[in-house]
Structures are given as structure tokens and as C-alpha cells.
Amino acid sequence: MSLPLDGVRVLDLSRLLPGGFCSLLLADFGAEVLKVEDTGMGDYIRWSPPFYEGAHETARSALFLSLNRNKRSIRLDLKSEGGREALLRLVHDYDVVLESFRPGVLDRLGVGYERMREENPGIVYCAISGYGQNGPKRDASGHDTNYLGLIGLLGLTGERGGEPVQAAGQIADLGGGGLMAAFGILAALRERDGSGPSGRSGSGEGQFVDVSMSDGALSWLAMVAGAHFADGVVPRRGDLPLAGSIICYRPYECADGWISLGALEPKFWQAWCRGVGREELIAAQFERPGSDAHAHVQEIFKGRTREQWEAFAREHDCCLEPVLELDEALGSELVREREMVVEIEQPGSERPVRQLGIPVKLGRTPGDHARLPGPALGEHTEEVLLAAGYSPAEVAELLRSGAAAGPAESAQSAMLRA
To answer: What confidence tens digit (pLDDT) does each residue in 63-101 have?
Structure first.
């Protein structure tokens, strides 16, 4: 069965999480993704523990493997003329370039978007950065927590009067960066290639896709910002209805853990109140934490175990679920039935590599998480260069000069070239 992105070729120059997650989504649905790594340590996440013992030293990190199945790897020194020439030769035959350097890095090396367009006018060039390709913070460093802090999301997360609370998932990196980049790439490819019921022809031209993780994360506040624009009220931490300010929509401690209550619509709140035999609380649905009604709800929740509350939820439709630990969530029936934990066979590994599955389920052309294992650093350098039209002698010269590098045998050998 063909995959929906069969034939789409992606050069992934990014490192770490945002770009890696973007190209993972594309690869799982059939895109041919080639990681273009430097001739030193490559993608830094390769060296992050924990490790799968027995796998190649450069492809045994669980974090690396979680983002890099279904990809290949080549090593090029873009500070060398030979390395830059090799990259541009690849660009000629690819559809997409993905990178996550600070703005201007590839331009200064002479292989930025404009130079790539000369080789391939159809190239879709996606740059993921913290603050975008223009603006006052264009050149600033940052990480997920900084982006969330700067756009107001971190400041709104947590209890009233308490400290800002960091989420366990990387909202800006993934939701603001990786997902937005994948969407932007696919939109640009659709515009370039056309098709659809209308038979619209494409422009045949690529374009620059500017993905700012700050912009992307800010878009998550669409309703919050919309309300502020309309009424002028500045929300504070703990004041938002969907972030802890009403008693019907909060986590609650029970006898042996925590429960999440999401009884936002009156029918769900009424079902909960009637189910616990406290109909007098129906009128208090939208009271704030700290109220007498809140104290009563807290007391009620503490009177039952998590298992008892799960049984209650099966009988009373009130948007109530347990707050699970990660191991419980990964072993749950929901995750199992949705195939959200999968395995891949990584060469040399003493055991199968368990990972999260594909989150989007297409009915006719589903993705495939196990087409390729995670690549060793530079595993495919020679075959890729040969396929790009270099002769065996030219490939040997690129390797000899250091413009390219083959497989790194170990962390030590990679470090020696760094």
C-alpha cells in the first residue's frame, strides 16, 4: 500500500526536538527524510540517555530513536566548499529543506534559501526558530520555557497567587514548532503542486516557510486573546475558566490519587452533583476555588478512591477521568486500542524499541512507523552521494578531505571530528 507522502523528499538539517518531530510526522506518512548532520557529533540528541544496549553507539539513545525512525543520515561539513556543493546537489533533487538554526546561519555559509532556489526553484524551505526570521528577538537564544514565558502562556498557567507552572510536554517546541512546520510544509507543497477536485494547477514554485515557535505557541491562546480584545480584561494566573478558576473544571485529590473533573456544561455538572447526592451544589457550578462550595467538592472527592471514581464515571456521564502516572497511561486500554505504543527493531538492540505510535489515523492510507530503524550517524553518506551523481572516486575524495564523513563508529570517533 502506498503512503500519502510517497515521493516527497525532505532534507532535514535540524537538530533536537522541534525539527525532529516535524520530519518524524512526514516520515511516518511516507516522506523520504534524509538527516543532514555535521561531520562531528551530529544531532546532539544522539548522545542523550537512556540507551538501548547493543544498538550502534550513535543510534542507541531512546530520545533520539523516538524522533528519528524512518530516516536516513548523511554527514557533511557545510563550512567546507565540498560539503556545501554536496548539499546543493542534493537540494536539486529534493522537495523540502527543514532547518532550525538561528536566522541567517545558512545564508552566511552561502547555502541559504536564495542560493538553494537557484538550484531548485521548487524547493520548499522551512526554517523553525524561536522568534521568527524578523523582529526584535530574531537573533536571541531560547528554549520552550522562554517562548511560553514571552507570549503569556506560562504566566497564565498555575494557581492564583502561585508560581507559574511548566507543562510536562514541550508546548512551544511541539505545538508551536514541529506541528506548525509540518502544516506549513504541506500547505506550501499543495500550492506548488496543485491538484484537488477543482483540478487547480500548481505554481510550480517553492517558498520560504517561516515558523516561529513563539508565534505558534501564541496561537494556542486564540480564545483567551480573543476575549481580551473584546472586553479589555487582562486575565491573571488562576483566573481563566479552563485553567482552574471554576470548581466544575479542575483536578481534585481523591483518597489515593487525583481525578480530573471537566463538567463544564451544566448537564455534566448536574450529573455529578446528582450522582454524589448533593443537588444543592448544582447552583454553585461556576464558583471559584476557595469558596464553601469548593471545600464541599474537595471533601466529596477525598471520600472515594480513584477506582471508585472510575466506576462512578461509568455510571454517571460527567466528564470525569483519573489523573494517571505515565506508566499507567502507556499501559491503558485506551492507548493500547489506539495503537499509540509501538515497537521497532533497531539493529543490534538487545530488545525491541518501544515508542509512541502515529497520532493521526488515516482510514485508507495509514502511516507506517516501522519502515526504517533509526539511522546511525552518517550511515548512508556514501550511498546518498553516489545516488546524487558523484563517482566513487569523488565520494572518496569528499571523505578524505573531510567535506563529508561516513559512519561514526563511536562517540569518541565523532568527537575527534568535532
So the answer is: 999 999 999 999 999 999 999 999 999 999 999 999 999
Catalytic hit among 143, 228, 296, 316:
143
Indicate if 143 belongs to the active site: yes
Catalytic annotation, pick one of 77, 173, 294, 369: 173
Share of the chain above pLDDT 70, in %: 98
d(CA 350, CA 100): 33
Q: Tell me, yes or no, if 368 is annotated catalytic.
A: no
- pLDDT higher than threshold 80 for residue 224: yes
